[in-house]
Structure formats: C-alpha cells, structure tokens
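FAQ: What does the model actually see?

It sees only this:
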Amino acid sequence: MKRLIIVGSPRSGGRSAMLAEMLFEACIDECPEDELTLVPVAEVDVDPCMGCGACETAEGHECVIVDDMDEIRSFIDEADELTVVAPVYFSGAPAQLKALLDRFQPYFWTWEAGGTRRPCTLHVVGEGTNPNGFEALIAEVKSAVAVAGFKLERVVDWVGKISPTGEIEAEGDEYVPTGSAVEFARIDASDVEHVHVIHEEALARARKAQKKERQREKQAQQKKAQQKQDGQPGDAKPAARGDNGGTQARPKLDLGGNQNSKGGAGNKGNKGGKGGGRG
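And it is asked to produce this:
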C-alpha cells in the first residue's frame, strides 16, 4: 500500500512538521511493508496556478509550469491513501498549500463524479487563538482532493492541543465531513451512532448578527431617503457659531497615542500556523 502525507505549512520544524513526523513514524512501525512518502510544501518548489487554461487542451492535461509539481502528481496518482497536515491561516490554508491545491486543476478535466474514491484525512493544527474556526480549510482541501480521486473522510482537530515543542497535550477531536463545509458532524467516542452537528449554534449566531446588520443598513437607507424627500439635510449639522456670529473652529482630534524514506521533493518534514495559531 502506498501512503502520501502532504504537510501544508511554510514553516519547517513547528507543530505541523512534528505531527507529520509522528504520523510518518507511526506508519512505519504499524505498516512496515507500506511505501510512505512525505511532501512538505516548505521544501518543494511549487508555483501558483496562472489560470492560463492550457491544461484543459494539453496532451495528458499536463501543466505548462515546470517545477516539483510533476513529481508530486506522480505521488498523488500512485497513492492509495492521502493525509494532509495543515495549520490554519485565517480560517483557511496557508498560501503555499493553497498554491499546491490549485495546481490540482489538471485533474479537473478528467475526474468524474461518483465512483470509488481513495481515502483522505485532514489533520488541522494551530494555537487556537482564531475564533472563526477552520471551515474554509476543510472546504479547500475537500474540493481539491476530490478531483484527484480522493474523498475527505476524516478531519482531526489538533488546534490548541499541540505545544510549541510538538508535545501532544490532548487527544485530537475526530470529525466526519458532511455535504457542507460549515456544518460537519462529530462522532461521539461513547456512541459511534450518535452524530450531532458542530458549530451549529455559532453558525446560527453569525447568521442572526448578519440579519440584524442588514436590517440596520436598510433602516438607515430608508431614513436617508425619507429625509431627502422631506427636504431635510440628513445627518448634516449646522456649524457652531460664537457670540460674535462667526464660525467657531472645532478642535482637532489627537490620534497620537523511498520505502519509508525522506528527502528530495517528496520526502521531508515541516512546520506552521498563524491567523489562528502557529502550527
């Protein structure tokens, strides 16, 4: 069996790198006969997609960009199982990982919906300081790997559970993605059959806040239109005048204050995280 681990952080030596290293070593110990490849985005040369569309009509749907992506695609094509370890950057993927995912575009022209999909697992890493979650990261990975013939079957949340030195301080929470990237299901450890929606309350609060904001904007527009119709100047205020009838100057505001090998384009370790945690 061939396994591929993509480490999606631009930092070498941090939480994502150390978690990927642990997964790498665990696979070697538990499945010594399997072929394992580690691809860290921090140590490969992958340029961003140019959106030229050449891969749509090129023979074999090959990309015109010459870099390490050709070798990485060979690992992707041969992999029986894919693992992605990624930090959260402002709820989504780091630029380097997003560039690699965007280079999955050639697969788009050959993929077919349905059918058998190879398994993919996403490990999410971060300090845990971003309150906006990581639904965007899930959506980006899920969408890209789908066209390459993988199904995102598991999401393991390590946010706030790995120390800066790489020590696992708490078990990761395992989730099973549903049709929506925002609402995904969590499997209760005590009852696998019990599935409930995560972030549903947070999502409801966000939608309620957005609705209130739209109502305020609508009311402000209606008020402005009514004032204009009545010939009123709106929020404009008359200039303050002194005892001598002259206009007073307003004070200014003071704003001062292998077989199981590492190395080369396909086999090394990595690090990561910000905008929600250093991973």
